[in-house]
Amino acid sequence: MTQDGKFIVGIVGSEAAKFDSRAEELARIEIRKLLVDAREVVSGGCHLGGIDIWAVEEAKKLNIPYTEFLPLKQEWKYYAARNMKIARRSEKVACITIAKYPTLYTGHKFLMCYHCNTNTHVKSGGCWTVKKAIELGKVGGIIVIQ
Q1: pTM here?
Q2: pLDDT tens per residue across span 40-58
Q3: What is the CATH number of the domain that holds 46?
Q4: CA angle, 55 as apex, 41 and 9 as ends, to 5°?
């Protein structure tokens, strides 16, 4: 944190297909709340859109600098390495996910988020990133859009 109370904020979460238009707007509201305290946004540039992309879009609107860490390949070990970069760079990390899959979602579904061992929200790699950030002594949390 700097003297002005601003943080490097990691914003990660679920892909675009897991949000309907209403849920996307609610997610963007949560992103804008997080940006109030941000001097920089860090995200993962997910190729499937969603929170990673929306966080950068909202940061650009407010002229907040951003850093995107992209995975070298679309395999878990590369996502894990990318997510650790996010956790290390950030001072605070928030995962924004959704309580349940939208009706029209056709992607892979899990009965629960195995990162959090809960069925109160869908699985997101962002949860894993938050857990790693907390292990590193950072502030972290999960925001669930209902």
Answers
A1: 0.94
A2: 999 999 999 999 999 999 9
A3: 3.40.50.450
A4: 30
